[in-house]
Specification:
The chain is an alpha/beta fold. It is about 45% helix and about 15% strand. α19 runs parallel beside α22.
Length: about 625
């Protein structure tokens, strides 16, 4: 079933400020509220939520309306029912109940009993006015939503949808995970559990998948699932607020939610009747096809964080995705991802899922970048492959490793199904967190490429002794398409190819004309460049960022016209930087086989949007 979208967003678009009491509009602006409901009904909603999200004594007290809570709730049900009758009488009316807007003890002064009484009064008013079900939504505190569930259970027998809201790290503001929330909510026997608001469709999708995984382990009562995301993160444009997710994007995710087990879907902040209409169209097309969604919670198991065995079974297939893409000359999209600074990989895995869903082919996992203290790349790459379901390219620096350690680490990587390597020198320890650490090495990158491709991939170690079954590494090397010395760089690249390189990742390209001239120069010296090149693309964040790269990073070519464009962009430098990145890629796309995105300052969300514009398989992914 499909519920409606945002009430507040629509009212805001009509010119009403966020500082007004929208719940009170049930009494003061009934025609406007009824018309919004009518728009959602006409868009195809099966369920209309009442305009009563904040109609409790605590929130209403800010406008001296605490005594009007019951009247506002009752009128909210009436207005929604009237709108439904005008369009389709079988539409259900859901009483919307949000958090109280105050902190509960011991963090605040409101007791659990006081919270229970406020919820009881609101729910009783909604039920008595004729609501068909209740939607408890946007809760971050389990203790608070439990009081609402207790009040619903004691007050009426209406079906209850219980929603929590989660941050980008897939935890509530108080640290609750989707799995823990699922277990806690299920104890109250609601009809459906799920998430609303949060971080947009993709974030809610991952939360619902986590809840579905938890539901599989509930041998007693397992509630159904529900999903009502925001339309992405809000953006400020001047004095107005906008949400980026398009109706078409919501239509795609409506089907994905259903495939994951959701039985009630809709929208939250930023969604409009256009979003709901797109979801209606997508759901109707899906239901009319041959595929019928499973009534159980097993659909999402293949990529669920709770299904480690299934992930491991697919690890080798994920690891070989790069080899397949290179062999078929497919356009490869990869992104550099830094391992975490702690042992907690959850945020990194969420980033990997974001990039995977955007259309990345594989992800490049750096190893101790800039000699800063972080988890090793091998562990991070393994987690990305097993937990996010996307192949990883492990950055493998020779600096700081002796020959024995190099070979031991390679065998460990192969055993963990990490088969894609990017061989590099690595950053000197003197620039990092532990400048006193040793960074000696026994082998240079070209020598390591040769060792891997001509010995370990043939079943022997560096001394010629057997290692049993041969390894099957795919090996990448570094390249610079805009070097100061064309001859020197061309000869070094040729040497890497002769050693057995399978592909090359380049330094960031900012001058595509120079890059094309270098490739022409190489081919004049050595013949056609057959090695797949993945062009480094770094979206610039600011003028200062561009000036730093130009003045402080050796070998970086930064044309003046790019700096001037950023200066002219004013406060929109990130947008202009992304536009420049796409233009550069477009200029070199015919001479490269892929793109290697390098995020600026961890802005993986920007990279995800860029991938969606360049990934050739996005439409069928």
């Amino acid at each position: 079933m499909l519920t409606d979208g945002a009430m507040g967003t629509t009212l805001y678009a009509l010119g009403f400020g966020f500082d007004e009491c929208y719940d009170a509009f049930n009494l003061t602006q009934p025609d406007i509220i009824r018309d919004v409901h009518r728009q959602y009904a006409a868009a195809g909603a099966d369920v209309l939520e009442t305009n009563t999200f904040g109609a409790n004594r605590f929130r209403l007290d800010s406008w001296s309306l605490a005594g009007s809570a019951a009247e506002i709730c009752a009128r909210g049900v009436e207005l929604a029912r009237e709108a439904a009758r005008d369009v389709r009488p079988d539409i259900l009316i859901a009483g919307s109940v949000g958090p109280l807007g105050v902190r509960l003890a011991p963090l605040g002064s409101v007791s659990l009993d006081a919270a229970y009484e406020a919820f009881r009064d609101q729910i009783a008013a909604l039920a008595e006015a004729g609501a068909d079900l209740l939607v408890l939504e946007t809760f971050s505190d389990l203790r608070e939503i439990e009081q609402a569930l207790r009040a619903a259970k004691d007050t009426c027998g209406l079906p209850v949808v219980a929603h929590m809201t989660f941050n980008r790290d897939q935890r509530t503001l108080l640290g609750t995970t989707p799995q823990d929330a699922a277990y806690a909510l299920a104890k109250w026997h609601p009809a459906l559990i799920g998430a609303n608001c949060s971080t947009g469709p993709r974030g809610v999708f991952e939360v619902v998948r986590g809840m579905a995984a938890a539901a599989k382990t509930m041998h007693g009562y397992a509630p159904g699932l529900s999903a009502m995301p925001n339309a992405g993160f809000p953006e400020e444009r001047g004095e107005r607020v906008f949400y980026p997710a398009t109706p078409e994007y919501f239509g795609d995710y409506a089907v994905r939610f259903v495939e994951t087990g959701a039985r009630l879907v809709g929208g939250c902040c930023g969604t409009t009747p256009a979003h709901i209409a797109a979801m209606r169209e997508a759901l109707d097309a899906f239901a009319g096809g041959a595929t019928v969604p499973s009534p159980h919670f097993v659909v999402s198991a293949a990529k669920s964080s709770g299904d480690k065995v299934s992930r491991a079974a697919h690890a080798e297939a994920e690891a070989s995705s790069l080899a397949q893409a290179l062999a078929t000359k497919a356009f490869v999209v990869t992104v550099e991802v830094e391992p975490p600074k702690s042992a907690d990989t959850q945020a990194m895995e969420e980033t990997a899922i974001l990039l995977r869903d955007a259309g990345a082919t594989v992800l490049d996992i750096s190893d101790i970048p800039m000699a800063r203290m972080r988890m090793t790349g091998l562990a991070a790459a393994h987690r990305v492959q097993t937990q996010a379901g996307i192949g990883a390219v492990l950055h493998f620096p020779v600096r700081g490793r002796n020959l024995l350690r190099v070979q031991g680490d390679l065998l460990a990587a192969h055993a963990l199904d990490v088969r894609n390597l990017f061989v590099t020198m690595g950053d000197p320890t003197r620039i990092g967190d532990f400048p006193q650490a040793s960074d000696t090495h026994d082998i240079v990158p070209t020598g390591l490429v040769q060792l891997i491709k001509q010995q370990m991939n043939q079943g022997v170690d560096g001394s010629g002794a057997s290692i049993g079954k041969p390894c099957s590494f795919v090996v990448g090397v570094a390249a610079n398409l805009t070097p100061d010395d064309f001859d020197k760089e061309a000869k070094l690249l040729r040497k890497k190819i002769d050693c057995g390189a399978d592909f090359a990742l380049t330094q960031p390209v900012f001058d595509p004309n120079v890059a094309r001239r270098f490739i022409t120069h190489y081919e004049r010296l050595f013949g056609k460049l057959e090695l797949p090149i993945l062009a480094g693309i770094l979206p610039l964040a600011s003028v200062r960022h561009a000036q730093f790269l130009r003045n402080e990073v050796p070998g970086m070519v930064m044309p003046e016209h790019i700096v001037q464009r950023l200066e002219a962009a004013g406060t929109k430098t990130r947008t202009e930087g992304a536009r420049i990145a796409l233009e550069i890629l477009d200029d070199v796309r015919d001479v490269v086989q892929g793109v290697y995105f390098i995020p600026a300052f961890g802005r993986y969300d920007i990279i995800a949007r860029l991938i969606e514009q360049v990934a050739p398989e996005r439409a069928t992914a």
